[in-house]
């Protein structure tokens, strides 16, 4: 089984290298076309188009991608270290796995607070506060002497990292209208999508030469570099006439209005349930790949990265197709593909026909479909939110990560000697995502 897995990984690695080359070439062409394509919102405070797009993607958009990647990077980088952390702290592996669940919960809840702050004080100040909190918590994680301390600092780290999820989406919507925002979010996914590819590989290599604590020192350094970039590159994009007073009644009214907005909720949940399946895969894949199919641990990051690569590539295809199709059209077709891929995986598992190559094909199809679903659902959810854009971006992230945390708990609680817990959770999430998308489409009609 282990030899077959190694041969299969070698073939996938060659294919992944080819896809990377093609994607980089496509990005170069996309950057040139983006230079003359995006239409900026007239009421945003931004860099002049002549300086922003002269050499391709504007620097602030690349920075937004890097900021959005900080959350996934902090999630995926320490996945290979779970056994090492458990042994070092003298606790069961399940206790270490729960530090990831705690991070997801902190990431979900903190976003609710960043939204109103970003609508009142602008995009830049709350972002700087979040990065400072992320850096302090990374230091705390690196120095933790118990799993309880590590769990607590991970929650604080998530509260800081949440700013990197909420604010970039609001900044993009400050600059672009719905159609161009979907393109920008797809391009942003190319940047942030490198995190799930690189993070486990970097984590595994660091573990080979130093301790697990070095992973959090690297996160601290990354936070410091991002803070420097925000101070030097980012300009405030919130127009004065779009500032929302920070009053409890205003905050509650905004969130109440968002919960009552059928289109916002449906599009948010369409992307959120799809994202939940992705988190179920992140938490469940180490056991399925390594323990069930005998994949050597040093190759786990390659399989993980291959699936992440499919997410990136399809998000870029989505960006190109938006020149011809609307976000709603792409979302509708991608949701169907998402459901079909996951239902096929369940059928193969129940029939006893599931193998590692077939599982990879199903996962690649799922992740590729999510590359279409996520940016288009986010753009559609934020399309009609106007002055409560920061609150809408925050609630969007909270809903998605809450769904992800629930799916992660589900797949970790269901332990069997097959891939059924993972494939079933994926299918449930995909079907809920498809149903939410149908509700969103009916809202238009």
How would you briefly describe this protein structure?
With 445 residues, the chain is an all-alpha fold. The chain has 18 helices and no strands.
Structure description:
- This protein has 445 residues and is mainly α.
- It has one domain: Growth Hormone, Chain: A (Up-down Bundle), CATH 1.20.1250.
- It has 18 helices and no strands.
- It has helices spanning 2-36, 49-52, 59-76, 82-89, 93-121, 124-142, 147-161, 163-175, 178-192, 194-209, 213-233, 248-260, 262-292, 297-321, 327-350, 356-381, 389-413, 420-444.
- Helix 13 (262-292) packs antiparallel against helix 16 (356-381) and helix 13 (262-292) packs parallel to helix 17 (389-413).
- The chain starts with a helix and ends with a helix.
- Mean pLDDT is 79; it is low at 30-55.
Could you name the key traits of this structure?
single chain, mainly alpha, Growth Hormone, Chain: A, 18 helices, 0% strand
């Amino acid at each position: 089984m282990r030899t077959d897995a190694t041969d299969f990984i070698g073939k996938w690695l060659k294919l992944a290298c080819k896809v990377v080359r093609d994607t980089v070439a496509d990005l170069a062409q996309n950057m040139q076309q983006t230079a003359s394509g995006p239409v900026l919102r007239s009421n945003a405070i931004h860099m002049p188009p002549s300086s922003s797009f002269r050499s391709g993607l504007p620097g602030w958009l690349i920075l937004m991608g890097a900021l959005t990647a900080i959350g996934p990077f902090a999630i995926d980088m320490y996945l290979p270290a779970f056994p090492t952390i458990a042994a070092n702290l003298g606790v069961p592996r399940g206790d270490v796995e729960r530090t990831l669940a705690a991070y997801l919960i902190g990431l979900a809840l903190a976003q609710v607070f960043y939204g109103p702050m970003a609508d009142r004080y602008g995009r830049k100040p709350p972002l700087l506060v979040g990065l400072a909190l992320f850096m302090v918590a990374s230091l705390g994680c690196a120095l933790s002497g118990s799993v309880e301390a590590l769990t607590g600092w991970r929650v604080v780290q998530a509260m800081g990292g949440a700013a990197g999820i909420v604010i970039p989406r609001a900044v993009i919507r400050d600059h672009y209208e719905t159609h161009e925002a979907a393109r920008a979010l797809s391009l942003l996914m190319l940047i942030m999508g490198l995190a799930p590819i690189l993070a486990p590989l970097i984590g595994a290599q660091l573990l080979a030469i130093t301790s697990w604590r070095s992973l959090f020192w690297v996160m601290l350094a990354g936070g410091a570099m991002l803070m420097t970039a925000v101070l030097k590159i980012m300009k405030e994009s919130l127009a004065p006439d779009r500032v929302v007073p920070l009053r409890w009644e205003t905050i509650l009214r905004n969130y109440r209005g968002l919960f009552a907005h059928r289109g916002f909720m449906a599009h948010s949940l369409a992307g959120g349930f799809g994202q939940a399946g992705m988190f179920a895969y992140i938490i469940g894949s180490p056991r399925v790949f390594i323990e069930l199919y005998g994949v050597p641990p040093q190759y786990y990051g390659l399989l993980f990265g291959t699936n992440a690569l499919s997410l990136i590539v399809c998000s870029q295809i989505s960006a190109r197709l938006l020149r011809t199709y609307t976000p709603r059209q792409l979302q509708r077709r991608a949701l169907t593909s998402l459901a079909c891929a996951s239902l096929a995986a369940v059928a193969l598992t129940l029939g006893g026909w599931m193998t590692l190559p077939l599982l990879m094909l199903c996962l690649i199809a799922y992740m590729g479909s999510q590359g279409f679903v996520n940016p288009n659902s986010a753009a559609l959810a934020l399309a009609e939110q106007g002055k409560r854009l920061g609150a809408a971006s925050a609630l969007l992230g909270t809903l998605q990560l809450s769904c992800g945390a629930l799916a992660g708990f589900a797949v970790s609680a269901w332990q069997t000697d097959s891939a059924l817990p993972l494939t079933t959770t994926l299918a449930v999430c995909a079907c809920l995502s498809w149903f939410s998308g149908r509700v969103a489409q009916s809202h238009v009609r």
